[in-house]
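Discrete fold record:
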Amino acid sequence: MKDAKEPLLSHSELLQLKRWNTPTIYNGWEQITRQDRSKDGFNLEDTTDYMPAMGPMVGYAITVVIEPSKADHPAARPDAWQEYRDYIGSQPGPKIVIVQDLDKPAVIGSFWGEVNANIHKALGCVGTITDGAIRDLDEMTNSGFKALARRMCVGHAHSWPVTWGSEVEVFGQTIQPGQLVHADKHGFLAIAKEDESRVLDAARFMDTNECNTVIEAARSCSGLSKEEILNNINNASQRFSQAARNKFSRQGAVSYTHLRAHETREDRGCRRGGCKKKRGG
């Protein structure tokens, strides 16, 4: 595995990842990862994208821990801001700042505002995911700095970098420094290093696979009977699953066979060729 300072993906590949929403990236990721697709990588708690019009953001995780309720942090580490900014500047971009707020579930103050957003933008950061708060929403938006957060607040209290460059936990998910992160209005997905090099191709394939099979079948229903529609969707679901298995060599490839749960016994008989009903009946 490469060092966190050596991203696996080119700038072109990152731009291509940014063209899709986070659910599409998840659809590819779940086909290639060894992680648990029911609990790993994505936020397990509610988060809000305060700049959804900016679309998705993609970058490598910069991690920092704050505790705005504690007034003694600035005195304990007076040079923290300078050291923290040196850390940011030493990491490759694009970067997403992952902020763990130790005051959670309380919200005492915000790490983010107009000034901090502009400074981080200058240092190659494209946005933040914080399980605390943000403020100066309009000014942050104007700077082009995207934010996913728990809420907004008025003040900053004693916001100060406590630690940085180590594992953090936000919205119920742990994130490592240097991890590739994709985020939008749906939430975020932190991708393990071992999955980075394959996730773009997997997402692209699964998106095309959907369009060529189940979506095409679902949108080609004009003039067809219910039995014909169901038959087309079921056949498309099988083609979708088979294509995924052929591509990824996984028996557990995600399928759309769950759509058959809505069939009646008579519908299943029609699908198997035993239907005696007239079309349109």
Notes: The first strand starts at residue 48 and ends at 49. Confidence is low (pLDDT under 50) at residues 257-281.
